[in-house]
Design brief:
By secondary structure, the chain is mainly α. The longest helix is centred in the N-terminal third of the chain and has 26 residues, at 11-36. It contains 9 helices and 2 strands; from the N terminus they run E-E-H-H-H-H-H-H-H-H-H. A two-stranded antiparallel sheet has the order 1-2. Helix content is 76%, strand content 2%. Helix 3 (55-79) packs antiparallel against helix 8 (148-170).
């Protein structure tokens, strides 16, 4: 039997909302692809990459914006709805709704799944496996009464670190690309400490 609720909403309403987020993310991905194609920025990245292939560039640009601004902002709004980080991480969607206003964790969960869906067509086999696993696990937490808040908080710590990894990947200046990768390694290490906390 199908569950009756997801992300604290009736299943049909949650599915409609999630579908709208996925369509919006795909639209954004397409808009960035069209907007950047043929620009000087794309040419610089193609030249730096050396292989002439900047197809993933469009996806990386959307990822960089999401990881550095959208995810942290939504997480901060969600944490602010509770007395502290522990209360936030152990919360339920019912408690979030009881706090009044928008349940920002629900928004963040929908955004996370949409973010993972937006560029499946650009993924290689390992990236596809990674994104599919993220979609399944995040969707699975949506079906649970508890656990989403702690899970997504940990994910956001790692996504913020992924910003540096993606930046290093598309960094158009060969001379300083090694420094970008070193920044990625440091950020990843710090994010694991934050995620463990």
């Amino acid at each position: 039997a199908l569950p009756t609720h997801a992300a604290g909403l009736p299943l049909a309403e949650a599915a409609r909302s999630l579908g709208a987020y996925v369509l919006a993310a795909a639209g954004l991905q397409t808009a960035v692809t069209v907007g950047v194609r043929g620009t000087r920025f794309e040419k610089n990245v193609r030249n730096a990459a050396g292989d002439g292939d900047a197809a993933p560039l469009f996806s990386y640009l959307v990822c960089l914006v999401a990881q550095s601004t959208l995810f942290p902002a939504l997480l901060a709004l969600s944490v602010a709805q509770f007395p502290g980080l522990h209360a936030h991480c152990t919360a339920t969607f019912a408690a979030c709704d009881a706090a009044g206003g928008t349940c920002w964790m629900r928004v963040l969960a929908f955004v996370l799944v949409a973010y993972l869906c937006k560029d499946l067509h650009l993924c290689d086999a390992m990236e596809l496996l990674h994104h599919a696993a993220g979609i399944v696990v995040t969707s699975g937490f949506m079906l649970q009464k508890r656990g989403m808040f702690g899970y997504v908080t940990g994910c956001m710590a790692l996504e913020f670190a992924n910003f540096f990894m993606n930046l290093a990947t598309v960094w158009p200046y060969r001379a300083s690309r090694r420094r970008a990768y070193l920044a990625s390694v440091v950020a990843m290490s710090v994010s694991h400490v934050v995620g463990a906390y």
